[in-house]
Amino acid sequence: MDEQTGAARPGAEPGNPFTSVPIEITVSVGKARPLIRDLVGLGENAVLTLDRRVEDPVELYVGDQLVARGQLEELDGEQAGQLAVRLTEIADLQNELG
């Protein structure tokens, strides 16, 4: 059930207790590969350059499984400044499980 509208969520099975179990989603915005000598020399306010640009897609993972891709957005209104992800691609998990 959607908490705001009371409508059933797509893919949710009525009576399935697992649909209410929270999961942690990790959003990967990029990677960096500094040398260890450079990494240990980093201090407060240092900048670590990533391999992606701000407008590049981010990847969403549950554990080590890629589940979706999307674009970072900044929310407005009461949640101004809060980051969010607009999903642009959902992984086909059914075909990847076999």
In short:
The protein is mainly beta and 98 residues long. It has helices at residues 36-40, 93-96, and strands at residues 26-28, 58-62, 65-74, 83-90. It has one domain: Surface presentation of antigens (SPOA) (Roll).
Question: Could you characterize what this model shows?
Answer:
The protein is mainly β. It has a single domain (25-96), classed as Roll (Surface presentation of antigens (SPOA)). Helices cover 9% and strands 27% of the residues. It has two helices and four strands, in the order βαβββα. The longest helix has 5 residues, at 36-40. The protein starts with 25 loop residues before the first strand and ends with a helix. Mean pLDDT is 86; it is low at 1-7.
Keywords:
98 residues, mainly beta, 4-stranded antiparallel beta sheet, disordered N terminus
Give the topology string: H per helix, E per strand. Answer: EHEEEH
Q: CATH superfamily membership, which one?
A: SpoA-like
Arrangement of strands in the largest sheet: 1-2-3-4
Low-confidence stretches: 1-7
Summarize the biggest pleated sheet.
4 strands, antiparallel
Average pLDDT over all residues? 86
CATH architecture group name = Roll
Q: How many structural domains can be distinguished in the coordinates?
A: 1
Q: Summarize the amount of helix as a percent range.
A: under 10%
Rg, alpha carbons: 18 Å
Instruction: Describe the global form.
Output: extended
